[in-house]
TrEMBL record, chain B:
<feature type="transmembrane region" description="Helical">
    <location>
        <begin position="343"/>
        <end position="361"/>
    </location>
</feature>
<feature type="transmembrane region" description="Helical">
    <location>
        <begin position="278"/>
        <end position="296"/>
    </location>
</feature>
<protein>
    <submittedName>
        <fullName>Phosphatidylinositol glycan anchor biosynthesis class Q</fullName>
    </submittedName>
</protein>
<keyword id="KW-0812">Transmembrane</keyword>
<feature type="transmembrane region" description="Helical">
    <location>
        <begin position="373"/>
        <end position="396"/>
    </location>
</feature>
<dbReference type="GO" id="GO:0016020">
    <property type="term" value="C:membrane"/>
</dbReference>
<dbReference type="InterPro" id="IPR007720">
    <property type="entry name" value="PigQ/GPI1"/>
</dbReference>
<feature type="transmembrane region" description="Helical">
    <location>
        <begin position="445"/>
        <end position="469"/>
    </location>
</feature>
<feature type="transmembrane region" description="Helical">
    <location>
        <begin position="475"/>
        <end position="499"/>
    </location>
</feature>
<dbReference type="GO" id="GO:0005783">
    <property type="term" value="C:endoplasmic reticulum"/>
</dbReference>
<keyword id="KW-1133">Transmembrane helix</keyword>
<dbReference type="Pfam" id="PF05024">
    <property type="entry name" value="Gpi1"/>
</dbReference>
<dbReference type="GO" id="GO:0006506">
    <property type="term" value="P:GPI anchor biosynthetic process"/>
</dbReference>
<keyword id="KW-0472">Membrane</keyword>
Length: 223, 581
């Protein structure tokens, strides 16, 4: 059984929550974050290129005046200032093309790194009664990173508040057992960290998780 | 609680038979290890299971029946399978069934001893979890945090959760030894039933490793005995050996090689990984060293290097002389005390003159020395880098001497100033109480004290400037040496075998598992696929890092600044077992 709902995150972006009920003891929640917008991509590329062109014009202005002694040593001493204008010009264009190619390179590498390491497209929470809870983040480049927490370690799933910059936000988190202390908590694992949905979405997920956890605790373990 | 049945993916297409595996009551899960096919004699099956149980200390038993049938259900087979439950009694009895060619599975669990209460459901819910037997067998779980009171060695009881599944499969190797080509009494289906996996190279290496290890261990023991002889314990040699980083690196390598070629077998997986990491790192080191050797000894590069070395040393000495002339004048517009300036400047200039003559004396032998040192690259790249660092230290010995002179002078001055400052204010340092106490001085004590204080204060800028300049030079040399040491450390401690394993066989090093829900139909049991979640690279490096030489700077930035301010000498590398000055 599958259904899709639309919610919004703390910044107002649109989130899609896809719920799959596989069985009474297994449910999956898939939260899709807003995609990389063309506007921000264009803005970043334009700013990097403007910076590169700015540097280029700066260098050009500096080299318009013949006070560039280093060109001599780099051209293995052939160049003298008045007669070396041709080689100086070649070196100038090489340096400028280096700036522009460096700008292209930086933009590409930066974009690839952003897509592979930073931009999370989808976050999934799979809760299986008596096995555990699995959280998967899939990045825009297709990479997936998964964490699985066994049910024996899970104490509870709660909604907690936090102060985030100037706001107070709600987030869903999993409390882990402390093996030393029976009533203590060893770790708090937040869920949906990059999607950051608002309270209405969290309540939906929370209710389903609590149903499954209660179901797990109600049926007694067989001898 | 839902009953979890861990089923190997290799048995999903096997013929009907009995399910053999281990039942874990704490998690209500059944780990199926193999399927025993018809025809079989129950006594022989029980004997085989008893043998496996004895060999592997895993409680292997018959868990239930497996039925892989065609479209029309065969009633006789169904009754036969139920009758088997009476022969091999196991609690609970699992009955898995799959229609041939489809993805529809059905499971039934019957509890015989526990009477079904009226409000409990008639059938227990069963969850099928498929796992790749080969990958689970070969992988090693790395739990996220090691519990402080976790005792190593309690094999059966304390493995919790999914670690129990991994543990069961890993220890049941005795069950997987026979394949379908063996003329055994009982026909089994498991991951190796299509043919036992083996590699000729691995087998040959295993056979050859015994004598090779013996030979190398003997040679290494000879070398260690030679290096531990009395000659090296005498004062000049032991002092020099403790200062040179080459000796430290050679000692480290000798230790590593002794560990690799020791005749004892590795006790557990982590020791095996350590040996493998050390071996790969030594081999890579030697390979890089031989490359360097071939590059150095070709095209008369050693000659070029030797020809360039003396002019470079001359150039360094000349630059130092220019620097001292600058200090003796009015450096940066500051006005120095002329007399002290001249004394210090001439003192240091004479030193440089001595140093230059020494270098010129050595210059005919430099090429020969370099050639022999270049040969040491066959011992490894790290050894050559350590030699390079030592050569830098030797060539800049005069900078080190200047730094020591400047620092000692400055330190004396600061000590004198602080003590006379206390006298100026009428206080005294109480050595017994380790604190500053007030004290009444006589007039003549106060007079001489104040006079000396003013003299020291006015001579402070000159000394401080010399100290500053030489400290900066020394720090520059220390930085260069530090970078080389960092590189050597990195080569020594990087676990290359573990990284290669993570790259090529990611299932071998696992941080956990991940589940994927397979096609599900209402009324059928839930099917999940369990896959191995590989360990991230930073955790691989952190877990399998080899111990390095251990010569890291021991003080923090704060204490370093404090030492610099008070003129205390800085020793950036403290070798192991050396006393602090």
């Amino acid at each position: 059984m599958e259904d899709e709902l639309t919610f919004s995150d703390i910044y107002g972006g649109r989130l899609a929550l896809l719920r799959r009920y596989y069985s009474p003891s297994c449910r999956e929640f898939c939260l899709s974050c807003p995609r990389l917008s063309l506007r921000s991509l264009t803005a970043v590329t334009c700013s990097v290129w403007l910076a590169a062109y700015g540097l280029f014009t700066l260098f050009e202005q500096n080299k318009a005046f013949p006070a560039w002694p280093r060109v001599d040593s780099l051209n293995s001493g052939i160049c003298r200032r008045p007669s070396g204008n041709l080689t100086a010009g070649v070196w100038l264009s090489l340096q400028n093309s280096m700036i522009l190619s460096a700008a292209i390179f930086i933009t590409l590498i930066g974009l690839l790194g952003y897509l592979h390491f930073v931009k999370i497209d989808q976050e999934t929470l799979l809760i299986i009664d008596s096995l555990g809870i699995q959280m998967t983040s899939s990045y825009a480049s297709g990479k997936e990173s998964t964490t699985f927490i066994e049910m024996g370690k899970v104490k509870d799933v709660i909604i907690n508040e936090a102060i985030y910059m100037q706001k107070v936000i709600y987030y869903l988190c999993i409390l882990l057992n402390d093996p030393m202390e029976p009533n203590g908590i060893s770790q708090v694992v937040p869920v949906f960290q990059s999607a950051k949905p608002r309270l209405d979405c969290l309540i939906e997920v929370y209710r389903s998780c609590q149903e499954i956890l209660a179901h797990g605790k109600a049926t007694p373990t067989s001898p | 609680m839902v009953l979890k049945a861990f089923f190997p993916t290799c048995c999903t297409s096997a013929d009907s038979g009995l399910l053999v595996g281990r039942w874990v009551p704490e998690q209500n899960s059944a780990v199926v290890l193999a399927v025993v096919h018809f025809p079989f004699i129950p006594i022989q099956v029980k004997e085989l299971l008893a043998q496996v149980q004895q060999a592997s200390r895993v409680g292997v038993a018959v868990l239930g029946t497996w039925c892989h049938r065609r479209q029309e259900p065969e009633e006789s087979l169904g009754h036969f399978l139920e009758g088997l439950g009476a022969i091999f009694s196991h609690e609970p009895w699992l009955q898995l069934c799959r229609e041939r060619g489809s993805k529809l599975w059905s499971c039934k669990v019957t509890h015989r001893q526990v009477p079904t209460s009226p409000d409990a459901p008639g059938e227990d819910q069963v969850m099928l979890i498929f796992y790749d037997q080969r990958k689970v067998l070969l992988s090693q779980l790395h739990p996220p945090t090691a519990l402080p009171d976790h005792q190593a060695g309690d094999a059966t009881a304390s493995t919790r959760g999914l670690a129990a599944v991994f543990d069961t499969v890993a220890r049941s190797e005795a069950l997987f030894r026979s394949d379908r080509f063996d003329e055994g009494l009982v026909r089994l289906s498991h991951w190796q039933s299509e043919g036992v996996e083996a590699s000729i190279i691995v087998e040959l290496a295993k056979q050859a490793s015994g004598p090779v290890c013996l030979l190398f261990a003997y040679l290494l023991s000879l070398i260690s005995a030679a290096s531990a002889c009395r000659v090296f314990k005498l004062w000049p040699l032991s002092f020099i050996c403790s200062k040179l980083s080459t000796c430290e690196q050679l000692r480290h390598r000798l230790e590593q090689l002794t560990f690799i070629f020791s005749t004892q077998k590795a006790e557990n997986a982590s020791q095996l990984m350590r040996k493998a990491n050390m071996l790969v790192s030594v081999l890579l080191d030697v390979a890089l060293g031989l490359t360097l050797l071939s590059w150095l000894h070709g095209k008369d590069r050693i000659g070029q290097l030797a020809d360039a070395l003396v002019p470079v040393a001359d150039w360094v000495a000349e630059e130092l002389q220019h620097l001292l002339q600058w200090l003796m004048g009015a450096p940066a517009g500051l006005k120095m005390n002329r007399a002290l300036d001249q004394v210090l400047g001439r003192f240091f200039l004479y030193h440089i003159h001595l140093w230059i003559s020494y270098i010129h004396l050595m210059s005919p032998f430099i090429e020969r020395i370099l050639w022999h040192m270049g040969l040491s690259a066959c011992l490894g790249l790290t050894v050559s880098l350590s030699i390079l660092s030592d050569i830098i230290a030797l060539l800049t010995f005069h900078i080190y001497c200047f730094y020591v002179y400047g620092a000692r002078l400055y330190c004396l001055k600061i000590c004198g100033l602080s003590s006379l400052w206390r006298l100026f204010r009428g206080k005294k340092w109480n050595v017994l109480r380790q604190r500053v106490d007030s004290c009444s001085y006589d007039l003549d004590q106060l007079f001489i004290g104040t006079l000396l204080f003013t003299i020291l204060v006015f001579l402070l800028p000159t000394t401080a400037l010399y100290y500053l300049v030489f400290t900066l030079l020394r720090l520059l040399v220390v930085t260069v040496q530090g970078l080389i040491h960092l590189l050597v450390d990195l080569t020594n401690s990087l676990p290359l075998y573990a990284l290669g394993l993570r790259l090529c066989r990611p299932y071998r090093l696992s941080a956990g598992v991940k589940f994927q829900v397979l096609e599900h139909e209402a009324g059928r049991p839930l099917r999940l696929l369990m896959q191995i979640n590989p360990l991230p690279y930073n955790r691989v490096v952190h877990t399998y890092r080899l111990p390095s030489c251990g010569c890291h700077p021991k003080h923090s930035w704060g204490s370093l600044c404090r030492k610099l301010f008070f003129g205390e000498l800085i020793y950036p590398w403290r070798q192991r077992g050396e006393k602090q000055d």
